[in-house]
Amino acid sequence: MDNLNLFTMILRLLLAAALGGLIGLEREAHGRPAGLRTHILVSLGAGLFTIISQSYGGPQSDPSRIASQIVSGIGFLGAGTIIRQGSIIRGLTTAASLWTTAAIGMAAGRGGDLTYLAIVASVIVFVTLSTITRIEHLMLERQSIHDLTVVLPGGRSGITSIMEILSRFGISVLGIRSEETEAGLFIARLHLRIPPGLDMASVNSELTTLPEIRSFSWE
Q: How much is the CA Rg of the chain, to the nearest whole Å?
């Protein structure tokens, strides 16, 4: 059993809160549902639970039981940040950052060599969230975003053939919205990412050959 004095426990909690705040600051800057306060509380709570598990240690106790409950319990909080909008899912990165922040809080609460591991992990997460996002944006700027609206008399079954053609040309589908008219026509609007330099005439030619499509238009 680890004999922790009050000063050591306070320092560990402050470190856990600071490291969680570092990650939360980046999420807050991007307007994510779980920001600065949430990440601080997650890291602080995980650190506190870890300290408690050490303090209650004894011959018949298993401190790892509380740690395992933290890992499973944070999943519920992370799930609350995930939002589905049609075929687009948002919040996965924030959920992952909360999950990692809990682990950082646990490492800070445990102390010892894990303190350095918690600091390094926090820096890696912060750099990943901030720098990688900028790199992704630079890469996406080279690609164009367009909407393709298709009218399918036969219903949604024609979407499969359209998706195959788009995939063949390296076009990514970011989202799909659909509706069915009173006349029985199925209208699908596909939000697409077009790679640079793509010959759109070839894409249109392929789409024209599909018997499932009555008409289509680009925006």
A: 25
Nearest residue to 32 via CA among 98, 86, 76, 85: 98
Adjacent-strand bridge partners of 148: 190, 218
Could you give the CA distance from residue 139 to residue 204 in angstroms, rounded to a whole number?
Answer: 25
Q: Which of 122, 125, 106 is nearest to 114 (CA)?
A: 106
- Does position 180 have pLDDT exceeding 50, yes or no? yes
Torsion region of 181: left, alpha or beta (phi above 0 gives left; psi -120 to 50 gives alpha) = beta
Look-up: residue for tokens 């949430």? Answer: 38
Domains annotated on the chain, with CATH: 6-140 (no CATH), 144-218 (3.30.70.260)
pLDDT band at 1 (very low <50, low <70, confident <90, very high): very low
14, HSE (Cβ side, Cα atoms, 13 Å): 6
Closest CA to 106 of 58, 70, 57: 70
Distance CA 45, CA 73 (A): 11
Distances (CA, A) of 184 to 122, 151, 154, 163, 180: 54, 10, 8, 22, 6
Which pair of structure tokens corresponds to residue 151?
């009218």
pLDDT tens, position by position, 98-125: 888 888 888 888 888 888 888 888 888 8
Q: How many residues does the chain have?
A: 219
Q: How far apart (Å, rounded) are the C-alpha atoms in residues 159 and 177?
A: 12
